[in-house]
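Quick check before the chapter quiz. The format below is the same one you will see on the exam, so make sure you can read both the input and the output lines.
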Amino acid sequence: MSDLSFLRNLFRRRRTWTAAAYLLLALTWGSAIALLALSGWFITAAALAGAGLLLGLELFTPSAGIRAAALLRTLARYGERVLGHEAVLRVLADLRGASFAAVARLPLPAQRRMRSGDLQQRLIADIDTLDGVPLRITGPLVAAGLAVLGAAGLAAWLAPWPAPLLITGLAGLTIAASALAARFGQTRSRALVGRRSRERVALLDYFGGLADLLAYRRAAAYQQDLERREREQAGALLLQERVALGADQAVQALVALTALAMLALALHWHAQGLVSAPVAVLLALMTLGLNEALSSLPGALWRSGESLEAASRLRGLGVDSADAPDTPLQDAVRPGEAPQDTDFRVEGLAVGFPGQRPLLEGLEFELVPGRPLVIHGASGIGKTTLLETLAGERPPLRGGVRLAGQAPQHWPETTRYRAIGYLPQHTPLLDESVAANLRLGMPELTDQDLWAALDTVELANPLRREGSGLDYRTGERGQRLSGGQARRLALAWLLLRDAPVVLLDEPFAGLDTELEQRILTRIRPWLEQRRVVLVTHMPERMPKDWPRIALG
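Here is the expected output.
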């Protein structure tokens, strides 16, 4: 799918709203043209009538037309703004849901490779860039085309054939000039988006590592680099605005010259008795009134490069614009139905990073309900990489993992997430309430369900004593909780998931021995009803009858 096809599919699903906005924009411009042309006709006719050169002037109809055009222009402009922004907000809501869902579907290694600043830029700035597509690109193109067709049709009715030909020729020359501006500007617009993203990443890196930069006396060098990036971006923006302004002025000059040519032709036709004097003025002013519609085209095509680049960057996340309205975030990450057979086998498994020597190899085991498998070994040996592979987040180097006879990464994401509950070593929490964190992907859970899970991990009483209860905000990355509390909250979420296969990476990190044993006693019946792998540095704390694999 090309970037253009991505945008077409994205806005096609809301085409009723956008089409209504385009028609209202065309009506706005058409009313403005009619107001100018009718006013010129009426003033000219009144002057001629006053001089005794025009008899039988009927005042009511043209004056009513002028008032109607003025009122219609105001109402159409208001309606176009309301419907246009409504259409854009609906599309952006669809796109945001699809984008977050696409990120959620990415394997963990792919998510970790993404710089936080670049990811934020894609999910915020790039999506916002696309709001200009219907309002500043396709809308003006469609509305200008309709306005030109209306003006040309009226000219064909009132005057000889060169009049509509002159108007359509003006539109053709404007489109050609706009296309030339777009050819010059689209590449630079795309570069503008990429440079803006790199600048944001550099800025976030600077503030994120400011303490180290100050300690090693490298802050000044980074500040100079940021200033250089800002100057380059400002220069690119200035060039863009200069070219857009130049193209706009060129179109206005072209419209003015065409209006003068129309006036000359109309006076010639008046001398031949083909049109009246008021109609001659109407034709010239109607041509001049096309200025507002046609002068928007160069900027529209010029800036399309930014939208195409933003679309390309979102496509890089795996966002499918055709599915955007049908893939809200809560449904995309909500677990689906687990396979009925959750048989889980590992055969000749080697795990690690592509192109490197395996961290672990030759692994063979089968998970059995009631017999959680304890895996332990030295730090850095590959335990976390093993769990990522078992969860289907990382492909094996050799051998295989089979969930119900099929590799986990080949199951649909919703099915895999329902079948496999994975508690990674580092689980960032949302800057939200405890309830919102626990209901992530499971909005149907009741408060009673949440309190039961919190009681199991011994978090219920601390939250009740604090006073806010389920409304207590965890803070960014769970910073308002201790490390052990954040870990227990993540464990409570996993208990609520109720997956038939459970992978736990240091589930009791940050807990003292006594608390760990109490929680383990509480969740042991739950664990022994499932197929479980539990990674730990302290296997001696686990029940003696659980099987073990020592790595290394």
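If your answer matched, good. The first helix runs from residue 3 to 12.
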